Protein: N5-carboxyaminoimidazole ribonucleotide mutase
Amino acid sequence: MAPVLILMGSQSDWPVMQHAAQMLKDLGVEWRAEVVSAHRTPDLLKTTMEQAEQDGVPVVIAGAGGAAHLPGMLAAFTAIPVLGVPVPSKQLKGLDSLLSIVQMPKGVAVGTLAVGPAGAANAGLLAAQIIGSFDANVRQRVHAFREQQREKVMNGPKLELPES
Amino acid sequence: MAPVLILMGSQSDWPVMQHAAQMLKDLGVEWRAEVVSAHRTPDLLKTTMEQAEQDGVPVVIAGAGGAAHLPGMLAAFTAIPVLGVPVPSKQLKGLDSLLSIVQMPKGVAVGTLAVGPAGAANAGLLAAQIIGSFDANVRQRVHAFREQQREKVMNGPKLELPES
Amino acid sequence: MAPVLILMGSQSDWPVMQHAAQMLKDLGVEWRAEVVSAHRTPDLLKTTMEQAEQDGVPVVIAGAGGAAHLPGMLAAFTAIPVLGVPVPSKQLKGLDSLLSIVQMPKGVAVGTLAVGPAGAANAGLLAAQIIGSFDANVRQRVHAFREQQREKVMNGPKLELPES
Amino acid sequence: MAPVLILMGSQSDWPVMQHAAQMLKDLGVEWRAEVVSAHRTPDLLKTTMEQAEQDGVPVVIAGAGGAAHLPGMLAAFTAIPVLGVPVPSKQLKGLDSLLSIVQMPKGVAVGTLAVGPAGAANAGLLAAQIIGSFDANVRQRVHAFREQQREKVMNGPKLELPES
Amino acid sequence: MAPVLILMGSQSDWPVMQHAAQMLKDLGVEWRAEVVSAHRTPDLLKTTMEQAEQDGVPVVIAGAGGAAHLPGMLAAFTAIPVLGVPVPSKQLKGLDSLLSIVQMPKGVAVGTLAVGPAGAANAGLLAAQIIGSFDANVRQRVHAFREQQREKVMNGPKLELPES
Amino acid sequence: MAPVLILMGSQSDWPVMQHAAQMLKDLGVEWRAEVVSAHRTPDLLKTTMEQAEQDGVPVVIAGAGGAAHLPGMLAAFTAIPVLGVPVPSKQLKGLDSLLSIVQMPKGVAVGTLAVGPAGAANAGLLAAQIIGSFDANVRQRVHAFREQQREKVMNGPKLELPES
Amino acid sequence: MAPVLILMGSQSDWPVMQHAAQMLKDLGVEWRAEVVSAHRTPDLLKTTMEQAEQDGVPVVIAGAGGAAHLPGMLAAFTAIPVLGVPVPSKQLKGLDSLLSIVQMPKGVAVGTLAVGPAGAANAGLLAAQIIGSFDANVRQRVHAFREQQREKVMNGPKLELPES
Amino acid sequence: MAPVLILMGSQSDWPVMQHAAQMLKDLGVEWRAEVVSAHRTPDLLKTTMEQAEQDGVPVVIAGAGGAAHLPGMLAAFTAIPVLGVPVPSKQLKGLDSLLSIVQMPKGVAVGTLAVGPAGAANAGLLAAQIIGSFDANVRQRVHAFREQQREKVMNGPKLELPES
Structure:
């Protein structure tokens, strides 16, 4: 199977989007990351998605901010499932990014995650879960990750008021 | 493969959520729909998801409105990918539903679609795309659906001003 | 000079977008309207804009709703100025359409008008003003339209309380 | 009577939630604080609430951020009154936390306080007021706290413009 | 024990607030409802709350819309726990009501419920839960109500697509 | 004539509210500032306003943040015109303060200014304008202030790009 | 004294703005209403305000919707106090009108009332209160109006649940 | 042809608005920048626009923040196309600026760009595109700018996870 493809609208989105890559790496899933801008390299949208289908990419993760058109435009050019990550915008704090990604019209879908790094990490997790629906090893690693999370919660320090 | 599982918080969500079922049916994907309320039947969350994993359900679609906890809580109990549909709320028009579903913390992911029927239909479409990553027949039907959509746009009537 | 090109994401946007056509007609500017969907006919974006540049289209007006990607994607494929009209969405009342159109990143611009019919009419007006910067006849008609508006305000009926 | 139970979705919520503990301490009400994550330890929700009912916990205070499901899910598993504190989220400043906690559907209630430390402190205060409805000593301490607040306002420094 | 006191800013709030009364009645808890306007009868705020404390009212439920000051002002005059219900406003759909009630400063608390009838019903439920913390009969009825809700979900009709 | 009365909910509002005092001072209008909390000293609302009417206070300026009830509650106790200043809140940036102050129901009015220091300064200005409607000297000073503002704009430095 | 001047951006704002006129009439204050559009008759802004100052108009009330520039622009041309009424807009429900009116920069002030008819009525009331600061008869009528409101609340019907 | 005219409400808007000037300079289009305040120098609006029409200014760019009336008021006084830039406001982050500029009523149009520096740069770009519709040299430079942007994306560094 080809690696999960992580695309983003700008080099400057990488500090957010690398959380998707890190999660995939932690879950033992291959990934590849590239910058493809819906607005600055619009002719690459189609060719990138055609190549991805030929390569057998199982999931595309796309992040963008502001009037974030990348996830929806990629989804328009492919039948591969596309997950969208709203990258926080400077002024409107990612509310614009979120609405631009999630409010897709009927017929072209983007599975949207939370604004920012948590959403990027969860895009990696959801991609692994998707692969895990058809790959028992990956599912097993998702279960193990969940168990780790659970234990971290269980073993946290005692909550006490600071001495006054 | 087991049918896609469509869950919703209330019987009253079905007029929205049936758009997911209809899309799956149109794409030749089996589905099953049930009411499971995060708040009124919380004990069913775990058992429903355990059963779904045993059955081999490939994708769960969950819809809820207001303080919409169902998709996130289902995701907490399973490694199956969960897609969330924000059902419009009466007062705040689904902005509450959207934020309650999409803003999940790192570690438990919900792939969120648009508010309302378009989002429900797209949840069905995205579920089919996920299955299509591993099933060439389903992918082929997604491609055919896209082609139909394209042709409907191309063959629309001429746009003219109403006679004054 | 080629007609102003009015594009919209869906046939269902025409009741809003025809206000642009009507305004252009009232100001004596040629127009042509077509449906081009960013999501359902993404391959038409580039060819439509290339043809428009060859034809000498002076301004493109584009309307769309929800995650409204059409105006920005058209702008990505052309140097013709693009004006965007946020079509009201059912649930979020066009706030999503507005943010998806106006919050473009640096490097690709969309001149955005108000949500709904007033914005569509003003897109027609602004297109005429743009042409009017280089065509004294059109500018003259804009001035005349302004004068008519002014007179309508000046000659309105007396404001009185309803008899109780 | 058992201590008021303060629960939160993450260790990182404690700097906010400790304001609830401090207020309870100041009002002479016993408390106990623990991390229980709706998403990472969902199986603990039911058992924690069953134990709380057996112990005779009079009020549960729960804080969480983002898609904040903890207060509502605890409320789903118990008849103990649950007070919810929206912990501020990084991007959307707690508007998501607030709506996720307060907009509960009919049948499962969460008494929601303000976003952030003020809300946490007031959750402690309201818990004490609830206990005070049935315990004259606690009510007396609430009255005394109010009187202190009043005096602090009355005895503030004179308001003057800074010398220019 | 005195009845739960249901107060509202205007006669016109009763269609919303009666859902609180109905819920209390269904749970076998006494209630009394009155109109007290923070703005039109501000001198009644203090006397009403002093009387309520003397009467032994265990919980006050207060509903108001727009710049909804009633719940917070009642809370300022009493140590009885106050629950607030944001009544939907005509233009801003209750977002103003919600923020005006929930965003109380540290030192005076209002336990806020959802906007509209669901919130009113839940205010009744939460009041019963509060009383139930000290009255085993009422708690028992809350548990029974929960069980009924659960069964209604379990026994809903089968979800099927409408015949096309 | 008695000084304009500037009231605020908390000592911590003074850095914002002193802009009202400064503007009044600049316009030669007497002022007096005090802390009166709607929530912590609710019994002072009525007496403060009764005293103000007796003293002949011409305008009251009131600032508060979050669930900002002070301006509206003062207005409920007096026929003196009340101007409201939304003090920025930490989490919601004063949107809560604004809606809590401006969305008053019919029958009790607050003339609301912008969020933050600009709004406070303008409250001082508007108070002076109100007095100026009946005092030619004050009006004259408002005109002079306007002229100064105009000249400052006219005499600004030339706008140039920074050398690159 | 000259009548209070009620201005609005469009004939279509009169159904909202007449509530200001009605309130003034009820309080025995003279008024005059006219349409002056900031955008369609911008040259009238200055002359209208100059005339108003010459006539001795004590207060200007201005209503507008959407990008509501009328109140602020009138205020820019006069030292008469200006009260602004946000007229509800079709799509964004008056949130745009409210922010366009209230968020004035330091140096030009508009005392803003609530969105819609309640705000218009309160603009009339506040204008009367302003006049009442200098006219004991008008103040007396404001007090009487308040008393009427109080009595209407006190004498409302008993609140009862509908028979089931 | 006369230079593009860049106007702004305050000297303090220049750090944002200079991005428009820089873009125009980069695209070889002449520009001139001035401060004209809708509120502090309202009498200059008309004369500035009359002069601009006489000079043959092809496009006006106007930036303002908060209750941003400048772009709309300039548009009211001219038939030259006006582009609006919402300058970020301190408290509401430019949402007020955006709505105050974009939501113009039918009959007076402002082509609105994104909030902040990106919007200012794009206003410069759109102005160049408008001129480019009638000037092949400028259009050529827009195409070249687009090509540069494209190449910058294509030649970005490889995206890699930081070494852990």
